[in-house]
Amino acid sequence: MKRIQLCDLTLRDGQQSLLATRMTTDQALSVLPDILSAGFTELELWGGATIDAPLRFLGENPWDRLEKYRAMCMGHAKIRTLIRGQNLFAYMPFADNLVVAFSKAAIESGVGVMRMFDALNDSRNMMISLLAAKAFGATAEMCFSYTTSPVHSPQTFANLAKDLAAMGADIITIKDMAGLLTPRDAFELITDIKRDVNMPVTVHSHCTCGYATTNLVAGMLAGAERFDVAIDTMAGGTSHPPATLVATFAEMLDLEHGLDLSYVHKASRKLREIRKSLAEFDKWSDSVPEPIPYPLPPTITDRMNVILSLMKDHEFEKGRDEMVSLMSSLGYSEPDATQLKSQVPGGMLSNLRTQLSKVGQLEKLPLILEEVQRVRKDTGYPPLVTPTSQIVGAQASFNVETGSRYKMCSREFKDMISGRYGKPGEIDEKFITEVTKSTDRYDQRSGHYVKSAPLTETDGLNPPAFIHNHRDLLLYLMLPGPAKQFFSADRPGNDDGRVH
């Protein structure tokens, strides 16, 4: 039997997409033993918003979280982290020496796989994180950010995959962060990549638009080796395909996945309670799915066989419709067709809803999502993933709030369209000049324009009094505001006012 690898994202991307990254370390650790017992050999546990959110909202040190994960995972599974290329775990390009130092510290603290991407698909912006991952002994997994637009085609992404392989990637990932990839396109794209690239391919797809679970089946049929999933009660919606269904489809295709689904079911029950406790951050709090039954009853497996038969016959659209119907019967939310236009990824959508709800302006969400489409067109159709999703989303919010397009623009928006974050799409020069009030343009990789960070006394390091060690310093240099607030806080039970 051919072996595939199912990688669990529940405690990083799953909770970021569904719960605005509000799951605490204790909550994560309470269910991690069951996820490990299920047999996952790779878990995405760190990176993305799980660096910023614990500092900002939970009063937790993300380094402490990573150390606790390492202690539990050692000898059982590799820890994967998501790094935003030159942007590290934040929203702007950082100095090369800070990217190297952060990567080194993460790998020394337990990270075994560094998954990296660039929001503009500018491969130059992944070069330093790629070199750092390899230098310090981690597997380098390189992504291209999938999107659809008048200027993107399947060949665009097949060429990107070849470029990343030539750069030295160990694994290539299709990062479908907004759930836009269709099963037919997934099958054809993976077939093209596997023909030209001799390395493992990961399929990463969000369920937002109703395609993701079918995409993973299409990926199995096309020869991909790795598939991102979430534990069942943290799947669906803006999260990922449910592990139980994906593993069962693999079995039906005589693919070995190595999971014990009884532990997936056990973890699923615990995660449902955790999710219910965080209902204020959850759009679907009134309809959190029950754990998928284990063993699966014939009523479900019969429907799965119908889907698989359609997929084998390349009836991808019918297979997708049957999959949506099946997942709906299991309690998962209906697909959000509006996202096919706005293309906002799950984590951003979760946070945007939370923020608008807190200020009593949730009714503006449809207007903002509609404006996102216009802003994206004006800016050359960038893929929407951190930080471009936040930059474009913020600009759309400004346009809606002021009632005048581009009357108020952030510095980040001006930098993005000027090329400071990397090579943008084709943008009208008159538009750039009118928005930025400047003719300055940037044509180098983003790190070229950032001065080295002060990491040693030789560099001019003079850290604030609340910084006590190198890892604290790294957080402060990347996220100065949240780090200062966290490390300066008077926390009961911690000497010198900080968490160790």
Question: Any overview of this molecule?
Answer:
The structure is a single chain. The protein has helices at 10-19, 25-37, 52-58, 62-73, 96-108, 127-135, 154-167, 183-196, 212-222, 243-252, 261-277, 298-312, 316-329, 339-342, 346-358, 365-378, 388-402, 411-418, 429-436, 470-478, 480-488; strands at residues 2-3, 5-8, 42-47, 78-83, 111-116, 139-145, 171-176, 201-205, 226-229, 255-256. Helix 2 runs antiparallel to helix 11 (261-277), helix 7 runs parallel beside helix 8 and helix 20 crosses helix 21 (480-488). The protein is α/β, with parallel strands linked by helices and 500 residues long. The chain starts with a strand and ends in a 12-residue tail after the last helix. The chain is built from 21 helices and ten strands. An eight-stranded parallel sheet has the order 2-9-8-7-6-5-4-3. 48% of the residues lie in helices and 10% in strands.
